[in-house]
Write a structure and sequence with these properties.
Length: 599
């Protein structure tokens, strides 16, 4: 067998050799694991092993003589830096999807392999349509061929699962299960398959340590209409405290028993709820083969998890105030230390991480800090390395996107800071991004409105100048869970989930000039009922901003501000001072007082 780590065999060559032995002419490699996570444990980073691309979203397709990698607008610059163009065509998935490329590049005789555990039925349906048009064939693989040739593949993670107290969760697991099973009973559904670890963590009030920066217990579960749950998880992850916490209604079983349990549901001819957008194709195939009736529907945990309860919302505000203390300490330090141009991206990120770690209830970063100086800030999900590490030089912009995991909430904030004296262009672009941010923060919209319907509010000031940005405007955020959480989001299209009270979502318009600079301004907001206007004929919603960190006043072109925008900004900065003045001291307090002065 070829060794892909040897000097004369690349991972791509090794994969093609392996496919040839299996009578396959192609293979699809998504950035995914069997749980459909965004952030993967090292053992599931097959796309990175094959291509070198380390972003959180992407797909590669390998054919006999051609190969391509597809990434969205967040990662086009990163893919250009990390992926060898001599081996892979690097394509923007918003312009050419993997399915479109496969449908025009593959041959009629091709046998394209895929791992059914890494694809949802919804994804496979699109691939199936693409290959059917040309007469090619999709072949499910019993084992992933990459696993056969990835000789130094890491072991699966075994993070200990710990209880998440009701004092932070706000609701018992029993209450959650009782609510969910009402729907199962009403629709004569015997069981719901849960394969999303964040859903399982929320339902059972547990947290884990299997994924970096996100407290997920990688596991599967079956929720029965009786309210009982079987949790399929490695025994090394289980503690005595966990067993007491879960109680007698939760049965523990090893991961390999999941297949047997699915077969049993089929043999009993049960009606089984599965989410075709979140559950992998292998589960669907096994249930259908054994005779189950699959009821396709949304993950029953997704929407109630997204609509935070009062305890979770209070926790989010409290976590963001503590997080703001860390951010203000960092920004005050940066204002003083960056004058000489000697601070580097990695030094800045390290100092910010240290500030957060000192805050009460801190557990981890919510993702690796994005610390981008100058042109590196134009790479949306940039990760600084010793090879790319830049100094924060006078006359440039510095973008820092970061967050923390606290027991009572998950934070995510982006600020762009001018180093030295900003240019007129910097101030114009920054102010337009800020105007879009304010427009979204102050939006009023009727119940039933989706994020896609209000996305244009954040882009309009940029559009007026012929500018735009190539990523979504907002993503959901969990409660001491994922920093990216569905099912809601704010983006140009593709999301039909209405915004509801209690949903936490980011507000993060931006602008990126390749090779020059990046700007992004991100707060988290929570959906709340809007005050009733005289003559209104329906209920309206609005946003309440959770994040309390100043914007860079030196980057604001006040001639572009409307009076309404100026009032909002001054009120926001006044609120920040009122909430934080007693939580900071010394140079940080002095910096904060200056940073929150009215315009």
């Amino acid at each position: 067998m070829s060794n892909p780590n040897s000097s004369n065999a690349t991972p791509l060559t090794a994969l093609r050799n392996c496919l040839h032995r299996q009578n396959l002419t192609g293979f699809i490699v998504p950035h995914a694991d069997e749980y459909q996570n965004e952030y993967l444990p090292p053992c599931a980073e097959r796309l990175a092993w094959l291509t070198g691309f380390t972003g959180s979203a992407g797909t590669a397709i390998v054919l006999t003589t051609q190969a391509a990698i597809f990434v969205d607008g967040r990662y086009t610059l990163q893919a250009a830096d990390q992926v060898d163009a001599a081996q892979f065509s690097r394509l923007h998935s918003g312009q050419t999807s993997p399915q479109e490329w496969l449908g025009t590049t593959a041959q009629a005789s091709d046998r394209i392999g895929y791992d059914p555990r890494l694809h949802t039925p919804n994804e496979l349906e699109q691939y199936q349509k693409a290959v059917q048009r040309i007469g090619a064939t999709l072949i499910p693989c019993a084992a992933n061929p990459i696993d056969d040739i990835w000789t130094d593949r890491p072991d699966p993670p075994m993070g200990l699962i710990r209880p998440h107290p009701e004092s932070f969760a706000g609701q018992s697991s029993l209450t959650k299960r009782q609510e969910l099973t009402k729907k199962l009973v009403k629709e004569c559904i015997g069981a719901a398959i849960l394969t999303a670890p964040d859903s399982i963590a929320w339902l059972l009030n547990i947290r884990g340590g299997d994924v970096s920066h996100t407290p997920l217990p990688l596991s599967h579960a079956i929720l029965y209409a009786t309210g009982k749950v079987t949790l399929f998880v490695a025994s090394l992850k289980i503690s005595a405290d966990l067993m007491v916490h879960l109680g007698t209604d939760i049965t523990m079983a090893p991961p390999q028993a999941f297949e047997t349990a699915l077969e049993r549901l089929g043999q009993e001819r049960q009606r089984v709820l599965c989410d075709p957008a979140r559950t992998n194709s292998w589960v669907f195939g096994l249930l259908e083969k054994q005779g189950a009736t699959i009821v396709k529907g949304d993950d029953p945990c997704a929407l109630p998890k997204a609509c935070k309860n009062e305890t979770e919302i209070r926790g989010a505000f409290a976590a963001h105030r503590r997080d703001a203390v860390a951010m203000c300490q960092f920004l005050a330090w940066l204002a003083k230390s960056s004058v000489s141009g000697g601070v580097t991206e990695l030094e800045a990120a390290s100092f910010l991480d240290e500030c957060r770690q000192k805050q009460p209830l801190w557990q981890d970063c919510s993702f690796p800090t994005i610390s981008g100086a100058g042109s590196n800030g134009a790479i949306v999900h940039y990760r600084s390395t010793p090879a790319t590490n830049r100094r924060l030089e006078p006359g440039t912009l510095y973008l820092v996107d970061s967050g923390g995991q606290y027991l009572d909430g998950t934070t995510d904030i982006t600020r762009t800071v001018g180093i030295g004296t900003p240019s007129a262009e910097h101030r114009d672009r920054y102010t337009r991004v800020l105007l879009g941010h304010i427009a979204l923060a102050t939006a009023r919209f009727p119940e039933g409105t989706t994020g896609s319907q209000i996305d244009a509010l954040a882009r309009s000031p940029l559009w007026a100048a012929g500018l735009d940005y190539d990523h979504g405007t907002g993503h959901g955020v969990g409660s001491f869970l994922g920093v990216h959480e569905g099912p809601h989001r704010i983006a140009k299209g593709g999301n039909a989930v209405a915004l509801r009270p209690g949903m936490i979502v980011s507000n993060e318009p931006g602008y990126y000039k390749a090779g020059a600079y990046g700007i992004r301004l991100e707060n988290l907001v929570v959906v709340v009922p809007a005050s009733t206007l005289s003559g209104a004929d329906r209920p309206f919603l609005t946003f309440e901003t959770i994040t309390v960190v100043p914007f860079d006043r030196a980057l604001i072109d006040t001639t572009l501000l409307s009076e309404e925008a100026r009032r909002w900004l001054n009120a926001y900065h006044t609120r920040i001072w009122n909430e934080l003045q007693d939580m900071v001291e010394g140079e940080t307090r002095t910096w904060l007082e200056d940073a929150t002065q009215p315009l």
